[in-house]
Amino acid sequence: MTEATILDTSRHIIARRSLIWSDRGTNFLQVIFGLGLPFEVDRQSVTIGTVIKGFYEVPSNSSVFTEPSNIIYERKKRSTSRWTIYTMLEKFFERYNGGDGKSCLLKSICEVSHSPLDDSHSILAEIISAVLRPSSTIEEFDHHTNMDYVSAEQLGINGGNCARLYSECKLNILEQYSRFID
């Protein structure tokens, strides 16, 4: 008969497993997700995108698991309204077009409403069309001046002359991503 060999594990040191991180300050786990849509405008590359960030405090003490009073169950509301996006677009038009930002945005809304895009256009054109059509969502006005955007859309739908109505702006947003073929 052969002798069985017994494995001696008394000399091996095994680190203790735990879910607790260092207690040197506050520890966070950061999760980032981003999505970008590249496109070209007048021989320039532009990327429109969004980033979602999440910060999670990781436990530094086991009392986090035994005393649930440390957990915050409430979420803060941080949504971007259409009217906030319009304010950002106005500033963008002022910065890069050199004209009246609100006039350029109103003209763009009017033009997109006057000449709606069909299904053959790109996903970017569909996004621009959705953003520049105030009636595409039902949202409460932040300020009484937000009615100007709805009025610009109605002028475009009813066949108004957008270039003449908003002559302060020389930009034609439809020419940036589409062209008319005779």
From TrEMBL:
Entry-linked InterPro entries: DM4_12
Name of a matching Pfam family: DM4_12
Name of the protein in its database record: Uncharacterized protein
Organism: Phaedon cochleariae (Mustard beetle)
